[in-house]
Amino acid sequence: MRRALVLLLPVALLAQGGGAPRVSDEAYGTQPYDRYERPQACATCHVDIARQHEQAMMSQAYTHHWDEIEYFELALPHAAKEPKVADVEAGCNGCHAPLALLAGDIPPKPPKAGTRANESVSCDLCHTVTGFVGDVPYNFNWVTQPGKIKQGPRPGVVSPHHETRENSFLRSAEFCGTCHNEKDSWGLFVKSTHLEWLEGPHSKGGVVCQDCHMPPAPGRSARMGSELSDLRQHLFHGAHDPGKLKGVAEVRIHPESREAEPGDTVKLTAVVVNAKAGHKIPSGSAEERVLWLHVEATDAKGRTVHLPVDRTGFVDEDLTIASDVLAYQDIGDIKGIADFPGLKRDGTYATMKPGDRIFRLPYLDPKGRMTIAQWNTAAFGTDYRLAPLAARTETFTWKLPQDTPPGPVTVTATVYYSRLVSSVGEFLHVPAEEWEPVQIGIHTTVFEVLE
Ligand code: HEC
Ligand code: HEC
Ligand code: HEC
Ligand code: HEC
Ligand code: HEC
Questions:
Q1: For residue 16, is pLDDT > 90?
Q2: Do 325 and 429 fall within a single domain?
Q3: pLDDT of 5
Q4: Quick one: pLDDT band at residue 228, thresholds 50, 70, 90?
Q5: What spacing in Å lies between the alpha carbon of 449 and ligand 5's midpoint?
Q6: Among 57, 258, 329, 341, which is 20 to 30 Å from 131 by CA?
Q7: Does residue 441 lie in a domain region?
């Protein structure tokens, strides 16, 4: 199916006199802004869809504060001084401000200038995509054919404003993958949400991105449209939606035995499950996310101790166990700060203690230090994230102190999530809402200490 699509596209374009489709970086400057309609034009008829899209992150992919900070304060200065990453001056925009890349308006003016870069991932960009070029969707290798014809999911749809064409590509995960897989200058997939999905159980079961991020509900897509039983909601909710995050990592914990005596060694096992996402968690911007498991025990007198996770001995395991070390020194290189010591690798969270397990994919810069600059990633550590519909067990071995009072010991396992390492957020003055941790899973178990 995909092969057929790829073979047909160039022919379709040739028929229009366009030559072979130019995609990814080669699409630079091929389409002036005015070939695309503004979202406000679509909103006059597609009211609910427009209101949904306005509050989804994709309509703010260029204007959102953290995106603005990372592009203008890190990526652009880095591109100017380091030839290896010079491509990101244009490249970031292929996914975050695609109309600006297509128009050759690079670098776009900052959001406050109000240019059309601010439209970010807009209605008319997605609905003029006809397919993609190559075998793997990544780095905005979609083909866009702007104009009167809007690509949509259904056949024979009539609109007073435009023509419509049924295009099954919009219903595929590959469509999303064109921007949700990113390959950097070292050839590494530094974002691979679609590839994670592809190797997971949801792709085998035919459940695509749209099913979870654009679920169907009865309604009309336009004011004068027909009543549909399965109108695709343009929610696109992800890590910025507290409800989507809640429960995304489930946790259960149990002791090996329900009874123990002071001085005994107790083993507790926590099971952490990614039961809700169709890809790994964290996915996408995994270089910035912090997902951790924190376990505490409280004895009958109300004294609380923190239990560090047992090590299992895999390569680079240290990178997944919370500690006070520094990282992200490349921020100093990029910003030209002499002798920059780095920032706390695991953030500054009150709810994290050294020894907590962190479920992460460590991104390593060319000098082997952890980085939050995905474009500056030359290697990875061990991928210790949570795969979809799979569980991971962690054990906690605890020698009970001799003075443990008799009675119940309550053990609580909590999973927390933060979108951006807090130390980096604080240093770059990213608003706290971007990195404040949220609790996404919790469970408590009890065992009895005998006299
Ligand atoms: C990120 C890409 C993207 C953006 C942005 C986007 N759409 Fe869509 N839209 C889709 C996809 C994908 C589908 C089809 C989903 C499916 O059927 O699986 C769709 C479906 C639709 C449909 C048909 C719905 C149905 O169920 O029949 C309409 C109408 C539509 N979009 C209008 C809009 C408008 C108007 C905007 C801007 C306010 C917009 N879209 C923004 C990707 C997008
Ligand atoms: C004057 C009103 C009007 C405007 C403006 C308008 N549309 Fe539509 N559009 C419609 C109607 C009506 C339908 C048919 C809805 C139905 O019957 O389900 C439709 C259908 C669609 C579909 C669905 C095609 C399918 O296969 O299901 C898409 C996609 C779409 N419009 C995209 C857009 C985009 C993108 C814009 C802005 C660039 C836009 N529309 C502007 C009225 C409008
Ligand atoms: C079974 C439902 C399901 C499927 C299928 C699914 N997702 Fe998700 N997705 C989720 C949930 C739940 C979250 C919230 C967890 C999170 O943010 O990590 C999420 C989060 C995300 C995020 C934010 C990730 C992060 O950690 O920042 C992106 C981006 C995303 N999904 C894109 C996609 C794309 C693209 C596909 C298809 C290749 C897809 N999703 C398939 C359920 C799903
Ligand atoms: C033209 C590129 C492009 C396409 C195509 C695209 N996305 Fe995105 N998507 C982005 C960018 C860029 C962001 C990051 C927005 C930001 O800056 O936070 C994003 C963010 C998201 C998020 C995270 C929202 C959150 O709460 O943090 C979800 C979920 C998502 N996209 C789903 C999808 C799905 C599903 C599809 C396919 C139907 C899709 N995207 C197609 C570029 C794209
Ligand atoms: C191949 C497409 C693509 C390219 C190229 C790309 N991004 Fe992104 N970016 C995305 C997607 C998709 C997301 C959302 C992932 C998620 O929600 O986990 C994202 C997320 C982000 C975020 C985080 C927003 C948040 O949710 O916390 C920032 C900041 C960002 N990108 C900046 C950049 C910069 C700077 C560049 C260039 C160096 C760049 N991006 C290049 C697709 C891309």
A1: no
A2: yes
A3: 41
A4: very high
A5: 50
A6: 57
A7: yes
- Asked if residue 209 and residue 304 are part of one domain, the reply reads no
As a whole number, mean pLDDT of residues 16-35 equals 87
pTM comes to: 0.96
Same domain, 215 and 116: yes
pLDDT tens digit string along 326-382?
999 999 999 999 999 999 999 999 999 999 999 999 999 999 999 999 999 999 999
Please tell me whether residues 183 and 257 are part of one structural domain: no
Chain segment 68-125, per-residue pLDDT in tens:
999 999 999 999 999 999 999 999 999 999 999 999 999 999 999 999 999 999 999 9
> What pLDDT does 351 receive?
98
* Ligand 3 binding site (Cβ under 6 Å of any ligand atom): 173, 176-177, 180, 193-194, 197, 202, 207, 209, 211-213, 238-239, 244-245, 248, 276-279, 281-285, 289
Residue nearest to atom 40 of ligand 3 (CA): 209
> Which residues form the domain of 414?
242-449
Distance 223 CA to ligand 2 centre (A): 10
- In the chain, the number of structural domains is 2
Residues 6+ apart with CB under 8 A from 7: none
Going from the Cα of 361 to the center of ligand 3, the distance in angstroms, rounded, reads 16
- CATH classification at residue 444: 2.60.40.3880
On whether both 274 and 146 belong to a single domain, the answer is no
| Beta carbon of 35 within 6 Å of any ligand 1 atom | no
Which residue, among 118, 106, 97, 99, has the nearest Cα to 79 in the 3D structure? 106
State the Cα–Cα distance between residues 132 and 176, nearest whole angstrom. 11
Number of helices (H), then strands (E), belonging to the chain: the values are 15, 21
d(CA 357, CA 349): 14
Q: Are residues 68 and 156 in the same domain?
A: yes
> In this structure, are 215 and 279 located in the same domain?
no
Ligand 5 atom closest to the Cα of residue 79 is 38
The tokens for 167 are 């295009």
